[in-house]
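ok trying this again, last paste got cut off
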Amino acid sequence: MEETDKKDISQDNSNYRKRRSFRLRTVIGILIIIAGIGICLYPVLRQKQSNDFNQDAINLILTPQPTPVRGTDITKEPVATQVADNITSAPQPTGDEEPATPEITPVEEVEVTPEGEPTPTDQPNRLNNRTVLGVIQIEAIDLIYAIVEGTDTEDIGVAIGHMTGTADLGAMGNCALAGHRGGYSGPYFQNLDKLKIGDTVLITNAERTQFTYKVTESFVVEPTEVWVAEDTGPDKAILTLVTCEDSGSTRLIVRCELESTSEQ
């Protein structure tokens, strides 16, 4: 093989390696850009997921619902009718004839589902099949969130979690609620440290009973001090709010006592 041919082959191999290296760098660059976009969008998507979940749950608990028609499972609006329009006039009795009984034409039930309102079977799907217990509102720190059962990552990632095994909302004993101290999904209990003694905490349960609590104390404990969620006895209805403190190394505890109960 002539020297010129050897040089041409060597040059072709070099060009091929350069092209392959360029393509590889291009693919890696595109993947890095896609990963960067994903990282940037993740907080936005998590925030939207949390906002959507909480808005659905809050509407479900706090928005007055139409009264269901007795004997049916589907929400209906009352049908406006006039009784007189549904009574067929009977002939007047003559002589000794028995008075005729008017015939009343029954009003046909019309099923009406308000526009945009889910039927009960739709609600679990809208709320990702989580059990929504109620809503917590703290005006002093501009907080309103849904309360769900459980404190697993997927639960407190979208709402405030009720510690399973503690008292029910508004019940005697110790009802413990846990929430993140801010993050991708929302502020949650971020400003819990700003609460003062006497501040109001409103809890509305799924039956739309509202419980008004007053803050009585605030303190910090170690993560191992689980006594803060233990039963406090049947004499008082206590609400214990739990969140992280000092970048997660300790726990901030806010204790409240039930002051009043009302139906919404």
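PB: full thing came through this time. The chain has two domains: 44-63+130-263, 66-127.
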